[in-house]
Amino acid sequence: MKARIVITTDGQVSVFVDEGTMETGREAIERLFAALAAQGVSVRWDGKVEQHRHDREAVGHVHVHRELKQ
Amino acid sequence: MPCNAVARAVGYVPVELARELEALGAEAVGKALLTFLRRNFADLGEPRMQLSGGQIRIVQGNYLVLVIDGRIVVNAPYGDPKVVGQIKDAVTDFITGLAGLALQKRVVRAIRRAGYRVSKEQRAPNGALVLQVEL
After folding, report:
1. Where are the alpha helices (DSSP H) in chain A?
2. Separation of alpha carbons A10 and B104, rounded Å
């Protein structure tokens, strides 16, 4: 499934999953962070996954968030 | 950057200055720092570097810059304390930036080694690395 990973110079690692569902996205993110840990890069993550989109039809700029926390 | 996503998670990898600098190598860090000082504090004179183990020691005019185990020390018994502060702030920002770049490389290397295919890699104006991957 297609995703983007954004790594800032201060160590923030953001993962945006662009396909599938929120649940399959969560699983993919968990697999990614586990795989990174196995390579010696431990990502500190609170387990929170959000759905994140900008509603272009709305007047102005609306953020829609759905949270799924373990 | 567009942020539409069916799922988004934000994590954090702590930047360990000493570790990232060690990975870059003292010589590479020292040379980069030398260039930085030459460019930004040209009026203090030509900087000269000595490497000893992992320690970087640069003398520029009356000022001494040391980088030891990720710590940055600027000394100048006969220098202007205000300039000491300016050098320390500038060198700290520079070294922290270098460590951040090293960390980004380390994370990308780990992603590739873990078997993920990175189809595109680009740098955003804020310095962030943006990867397109198949998860």
Report:
1. 22-38
2. 9
pLDDT tens-digit series, residues B46-89 = 999 999 988 999 999 999 999 999 999 999 989 899 999 999 99
Which uninterrupted H or E stretch holds B103? helix B81-113
Q: What is the pLDDT of residue B77?
A: 86
Contacts B128 to A, Cβ<8 Å? 6-9
Asked if the interface predicted TM-score (ipTM) of this complex is over 0.90, the answer is no
The answer for A 18-47 residues in CB contact with B (under 8 A) is 18-22, 24-26, 28-29, 31-33, 35-36, 38-45
Q: Both tokens of residue A30? A: 């968990």
Q: Which residues of A touch B129 (CB under 8 A)?
A: 6-7
Domains of chain B by residue range: 17-134
CB contact under 8 A, B100 and A8: yes
Rounded CA-CA distance B2/B6 in Å is 13
- C-alpha distances (whole Å) from A14 to each of A1, A49, B3, B128 are 16, 11, 11, 10
Q: How many domains does chain A have?
A: 1
High-pLDDT (> 90) share of chain A, %? 70
CB-facing half-sphere around the CA of B58: CA atoms within 13 A: 27
Token pair belonging to A19:
């396909």
Task: Spell out which residues of chain B touch residue A65, defining contact as CB-CB under 8 Å.
Answer: none
| Chain centroid offset of residue B16 CA | 11
